[in-house]
User: Fold this.
Amino acid sequence: MTNQLSASTSPYLLQHADNPVHWQEWSEAAFDEARSRDVPIFLSVGYSACHWCHVMAHESFEDHEVAELINANFVAIKLDREERPDIDAVYMQATLALTGHGGWPMTVFMDHDGKPFFAGTYFPKTSRSTMPGFMEVLSSLSEAWNERRTDVESAGSHVVQAIQQRGSYDSQGLPSDVVLEQAVSRLQIDFDERFGGFGNAPKFPPSMVLEFLLREAARTQSTTALFMAERTMEAMARGGIYDQVGGGFSRYSVDPTWTVPHFEKMLYDNALLLRVYLHWFRLTGSTFASRIVRETAEFIIRDLTTFEGGFASALDADTEGVEGKYYVWTAQEIIDVLGEDDGNWVVDLLDITEAGTFEHGYSVLQLLIDPDDGFRWSRMRGRLFASRNSRVAPGRDDKIVAAWNGMTIAALAEAGALLNEPAWVESAITAADLLIAIHLGPNGDDRLCRTSRDGKPGTNSGVLDDYGSVAEGFLALYQVTGDESWLALSGILLDVAIQHFSDGRGGFFDTPDDAPALVLRPQDPSDNAEPSGWFAVANACLTYSAITGIAEYREIAERALDVVGGLGARAPRACGWGLAALSALVDGPVEIAIIGDFADQATAILRTVALAATAPGAVIAVGEPGSDVPLLRDRPLVQGQPAAYVCRGFACQAPTIDPFELATQIGVRSGE
Assistant:
């Protein structure tokens, strides 16, 4: 056997194609080989931008001594968690069950049926402090497999039984607004009033929770919800987790102050946060929020757009083997670029110290206060950006993930429409066209493939969040452009999700009913770093129902949100996207139909006001009289002029041709 990763389409797997380890991709052939050789399977899971994945690769997988031990005693499988989140989810549950903590790299050993009997995350090559060395682990597990096989297989069966028992989700009945109030109160307990965010370090951007809090602030005028959201968003965007020079957010902060990030930049984080900061601006008119929206949108389009027009998955945390090297500065480097006067001004502005806020005297840039001269800072920022471009840039994982592109399409479409940036909307349309051309129906059906690269579809089928998030993106495009094809396509995707992913009890599995079997069919409503597929589909169904008037989709969303009754009050940080959907459901959601020629100025003014609606989950449809879209059907012009019709909860207000009256009806903030 030899390393078989050179033909992979995954940038992460290609990073390991030259390892002396005889890596294989996940396949039945790999399991067959393990059976024929009678050796266990070693599964290593990671992703291309993962710093500690790189460290373990350098220490162990590039090491010939380690490789010989693996090759002789195991069948080694390398897995890109972003390509196969279903497999990752199953074995992450096992890792959590065995060790109490998880993360990547994920290291799992399993029998010929895929039952895991040992798991962990990063292991150094040799023992270090309380951490066992990887060589030691490999030798011990090989010995146990050969000499205590019954015990090993029994352990694997117990792990599978344990994670199967954890995966039971019973209906709680559709929750009410009481659950939303309880969730806000529960979040207060974990809230860090000084630095924002929830819990202790490491701190991750709580994107879905922030969306929920903004919706509750709009729905109930809760000052508590708004304070938690604003404090967190301002702290993040002023701290080192936000790239003050180039825009965009890193994956998480290693400290409670948002100062030092884990420097990888993920598409899904930036798509979700772009939309959340947009909604903050929409609710309050914050110029700070609008600046972050613009800089983040520019980062996504500039640095993550691929040749084919989609959006790449991530930028690496490391450059030339050093984490954060591309992003950090010393005071002297700043002065060398900007000169003494401007350099010292920027050093003070960005809180750069002699000792440094990172490692080896380097600092992560922060903008803790607004500059006294915004124009001067803008010029200095541009010069720093130009200088930084001369550095070796982080590697880019340029595969296209359907779900993450769906999130980005939704964010750019909304932001482009609300901030009058048509180029952003065009970028969203181009990415959506790519999903249709490459990801939708590569086998001649209505199914999505999960990933593509260089314009070629991958072999991995779409999972639940692909369908929910892409449908969400298409629904946003319909509301922004009025192109009914996006509405039709979203309905097709939701129908596939309902038909092939439903569990028959109101919930959803993460994989379709015809997917290759794993030791456990993954199912989890909880959000993780991105919205759960369960809640993504619920959100999209609710929006689709409001536009089309088809009650069945609303009922599906309601049943899916039953689980929020149990999770929301107890663990709101795990179900922010579900709470956001419930907020919209409780509020209506508001339905805004604008009748008129899309290109007409009076219609455009009404549409602009509608886009500024702060009501949770408000939906918009724009079209001429006689449209077949149910939300627009049988609604005429008023006095021969474009008009807006506003409905909520099966009751409609009188149509209006007055933009100010429309603003009052839909809750647009004062001054808009």
Notes: The chain has a mean pLDDT of 94. The first helix runs from residue 11 to 15. The chain has four domains: 5-166, 177-190+279-312+397-587, 327-390, 591-666. Residues 312 and 398 are 4 Å apart (CA to CA).
